UniProtKB/TrEMBL annotation:
Residues 352-562 form the HD-GYP domain. The keyword RNA-binding does not apply. This is HD domain-containing protein. It holds the Pfam family HisKA_7TM. It comes from the Bacteria. It comes from Acetobacterium wieringae.
Amino acid sequence: MTIYDSLFLLYSIGLVISIICIIGVALQKPSDEQKLMLLIAFFAFLISLGYWLGIQANSAEAIIIAYKLMYLGGCSSYFLFVLFFVRYYKIKAPILFFPLFGLLCLLLIGATLTMDLHHWFYQSYAFVYKTGVPVLLKEYGILHTIYMIMEAAVVVGLIVVVIDQSRKRKDKEWWEPLLLVAVPLIPAAIHLSKLYLPIQIEIAAIGILISELLLIVLIYRLKIYDINDTAKQLIIDSMDDAIIVVDHNYQYKEVNEQAIVLFPDFAKAKKDTGLAEISPDLDQILRAQETSLCYRESRIYEPRIRTIRRNSQIRGYVIWYQDVTEAEKRKELILNYQQDLQQEVVQKTAQIKEIQEQVIISFANIIEIRDTITGEHVRRTSLYAEKIAAVLLQNGDYPETVNEHFIRLLYAAAPLHDVGKIMVSDSILNKPGKLTEAEWILMKKHAENGQKILENALSKIEDVDYYKMVCEVARYHHERWIGGGYPDALSGEAIPLSARIMAIADVFDALTSARPYKEIYDFDTAFDIIKNERGLQFDPILVDAFLSIRKEIEAIAIDQGN
């Protein structure tokens, strides 16, 4: 293989990788950081495209066009890297820094785009072939010297910033600053060193290729612009309590819908804004760890504060405004009750609070795990399951199991039936086509993983009935009435009744909802599928109960946005 063939292959690989980087960033959740990364990936693509076109040039005019692309991408990338680092580390730059730096970059971009019309960037240049490779022999001008100084200054400045921030902030993994600084440092170091090497072939492309590979790692491992997750979808948004999440610097990160109702200023607040700017009262409560009751619109809330930790380091705080209105009313009534009844009410209230507290703690522990299940799916399946159980109670089916207590527990347990999908890769959950055998095996693991997650999260609660049902629903809702389901291939009444009810609710909602791998089925088709699985996938008694309330089920689906 000739030198030309080797370079062409290298530049082609770099071009492909740069395209992969653009696609990878574009698929991430939109945010300001994601937009910056997308621009960086795009200008890295321009640099790779310039090298790829340059290796195929057959004239001075053609190779000059390639050089223009390289320098356009380089000037823009260094400006964006500085902007990205300032935002990532939340540094307050001087007011005139970015206008002046941006003006310098625009000046250099203009000089490079017109390099063939003046002698300030290249005093002279000539197109030749070296060992079969097209090369531009050039004498550098003053603007090229300024460009090299800017490139060196940016790299040194970024290294200083990373070292300084790593010393101040201990909440980052040790490899994060190394990865961040390596992306701009490697290509710049090769570019600068080329000035002192006796070679005319452009070797800076090797640095670009390495930098793009690191960029892919930065996107998929560091995940610097993703703070939402499945726990928020499954738990926080479906709660009647208000949840506010801030980081260790008291910067606002996330709230649920109820928090916006109680604190309307969050509706227009931007993330990463100081909590004190949005709500001074909340900031004071958090810093003072106050727990006095809050009265809002005839409701009573009790603020609680939970600390989010990772590797013994404080990562943030959860301010939890628990609705204790009913509990406070009960306290007034308890004063007139007998002592035994008073004790029972207090114990039941404590059990409810313990369940909610453990769920919130679970959220804090898994706040960095991602999933795609929506809150609407959770609400609909919970309502479907509750309606089916109500019909069983009315008809007297399974009288030894079904009562009002069973129905309440089922409604409370249903939202967590798919919590195990937190441990399934996004590439599998969102795959539009059929899963491979290996992917399907991983997908099926979500049932037993869900049980394990809930066992760990709720192991300390005293409500044994709730603990048992929520674990049953998570593990067994994919079992089949005639057997052959997963994870344990149970059949008939060996499958817990709560899981058998959940199976129908889950399948019906999946049929009537848009998923990456299927289109939406209309109600007639969905009900026919459920009916045809009577005695096969589903318990016949439960199917009959489900079909008997078709109008109510359709009303729920329509009302809940399906």
